[in-house]
Amino acid sequence: MAKKNILTYEGLQKLEQELQDLKVVKRREIAQKIKEAREQGDLSENAEYDAAKDEQRDIEARIEEIEMILKNAEVVVEDEVDLDKISVGCKVRILDIEFDEELEYKIVGSTEANSLKGKISNESPLGHALLGATIGDVVKVEAPVGELSYKVLEIQRSN
Question: Cα-flanking dihedrals φ and ψ of residue 122, to 5°?
Answer without folding.
Answer: -65, -15
